Amino acid sequence: MKIISENRAFGGRQLVVTHGSAACDGEMTFGLYLPPQAEAGRVPVLWYLSGLTCTHENAMVKAGAQAWAAQAGIAVVFPDTSPRGEAADDAAFDLGRGAGFYVDATEAPWAAHFQMWTYVAQELPDLVFDQFPLDAARQAITGHSMGGHGALTLALSYPERFRSVSAFAPICNPTRSDWGRKQFAAYLGAEEGPWAAHDAVELIKARGLTLPLLVDQGGADKFLDLLQPQALEAALAGSAGVFRWQAGYDHSYFFVASFMQDHIAFHARALLA
Amino acid sequence: MKIISENRAFGGRQLVVTHGSAACDGEMTFGLYLPPQAEAGRVPVLWYLSGLTCTHENAMVKAGAQAWAAQAGIAVVFPDTSPRGEAADDAAFDLGRGAGFYVDATEAPWAAHFQMWTYVAQELPDLVFDQFPLDAARQAITGHSMGGHGALTLALSYPERFRSVSAFAPICNPTRSDWGRKQFAAYLGAEEGPWAAHDAVELIKARGLTLPLLVDQGGADKFLDLLQPQALEAALAGSAGVFRWQAGYDHSYFFVASFMQDHIAFHARALLA
User: Fold this and answer.
1) How far is residue A19's CA from residue A168's CA, in Å, rounded to a whole number?
2) Do the Cβ atoms of B254 and B133 come closer than 8 Å?
3) Phi, psi dihedral angles at A114 (to 5 degrees)
4) I need a surface site. Which of A91, A104, B4, B205 has the fewest CB within 10 A?
5) Which residues in chain A are closer than 8 Å to B261, comparing Cβ atoms?
6) Is the CB of B53 inside 8 Å of chain A's CB atoms?
């Protein structure tokens, strides 16, 4: 593990770290924001999973999370969205590099490196809880778009691990969307049975919702057909999960930044209780 | 004038606008954040001048100004840092493209396009006050690094126009720095007499300080030799200007974002009084 950059930010430390990943068989990079409170002891942690084409860096510099995380005393981890070696090359923006979809690929050529589920659910937590003053008993998770999909599916799969989950414009129902079917076929194979374990709507239908959930979706988002928010809204009916339409907002980081304070406050209520 | 992008942000509108510039003899681009209050009438405006290598976009997506501007009801204009045509080409990062230094060039080959003082002080204000619900009687100005130099020199030259001025790690004394002498020689010529009009320290010595001023400077900034903050600190001695050293902070946007709330609050006190 190597800290490749460090910037003081809002009284805390914004780190960028590289490390060898066994899961992805190569070097991976992540961002970690440690609030000022981390100087005095272990702090709760919010995972932020990013969307298509993003690296660890986009949300770290554009989502404005650090201001609110510093106030609340919460660390934020910004994992990358895929392996980055030559094996990640693909002509499409929505497959391969920058488009890991938070699954463990079983199909060639992806299986050798694209193990993003194991990376984000297991290997990276093991590393950061070992190396930094983070409290594994107080975790929450959020994400944007493809990262919202990752956040929802991880939290629904490990509800005992996360105290709360939120998402900004998540891909909600990937087994029924072109943001999902293409990638699941490539990474997981044509047999659709295993896909449902990576579909937030299917997981809620199968398991119910047992942790606090907040989703914001922009009403002017041009990707509504691909995100399928109505399917998630319907699946949440009668649950305690909160789904909000935000009129006029699009799919950009301006949307994410606009509601980041709300999301951090939502997670702080669960993490600091 | 053409609005080339619009994103809802913090209840307001983040615009990017292109227009033909007579001063720079070509097309120029700027960002404009209109807070929610601009729907109801003219709002005060904060000019944000960016640093070397930046376009209109860097601060717009990384400085986190919109959150606080929306709360205060203040618009923010993000001008570009130089003309962008072929005439702007130069091998150096600190001359030509992205490095206008907010002066009107008198020397070839720059004079034909590099009229950034006239552009920022005259042409762009004329445009935005004509086209958008901004209140010309309530203006403030800030900036980062080369943009801090621009903000300070504009405010000190037009103290009747600006109610307050601030800067993040500004180039303070460019007539005595390699971030200044090289560019002033290229843009303004070898005769040093006219340079002093574009040096904040020299302006304060010559004219005094007649408006509220706030400067933050990171203590771990690796460009201290080029920025010359001690010269500004000394020039401000005995004045009402506030110069703050921020221990541990570097020259990055993480530093700018960390103190943006303070700067917007500082300007809001002057603009909303």
Assistant:
1) 28
2) no
3) -85, 80
4) A91
5) 67
6) no
Classified as helix, coil or strand, B14 is strand
Closest-CA residue to A155 (of A208, A229, A106): A208
Number of compact structural domains in chain A: 1
Confidence of residue B85 (pLDDT cuts 50, 70, 90): confident
B204–chain A nearest CA distance, Å? 31
Chain B residues closer than 8 Å to A257 by CB: 9-10, 64, 66-67
B11 touches chain A (CB under 8 A): yes
Closest CA relative to residue B123, chosen from B30, B195, B234: B30
Q: Which of B198, B221, B263, B267 is catalytic?
A: B221
Q: Which helix (H) or strand (E) holds B152?
A: helix B146-157
Confidence of residue B89 (pLDDT cuts 50, 70, 90): low
- The secondary structure element, H or E, covering residue A184 is helix A181-188
ipTM exceeding cut-off 0.90 for this assembly: yes
Domain residues for the domain of A244 are: 2-271
pLDDT tens by residue, B36-50 = 999 999 999 999 999
Q: Quote the strand ranges of B26-121, DSSP E.
A: 26-34, 43-49, 75-79
Q: Would you call B259 an interface residue with chain A, using a CB distance cutoff of 8 Å?
A: no
Q: Helix (H, G, I), strand (E, B), or coil: what is residue A191?
A: coil
Rounded to an integer, what distance in angstroms lies between the CA atom of residue A199 and that of residue A216? 18
Q: Where residue B193 sits, what CATH number does that domain have?
A: 3.40.50.1820
Q: Between chains, do B248 and A8 touch, taking CB under 8 Å as contact?
A: yes
- Is a pLDDT exceeding 80 seen at residue A32? yes
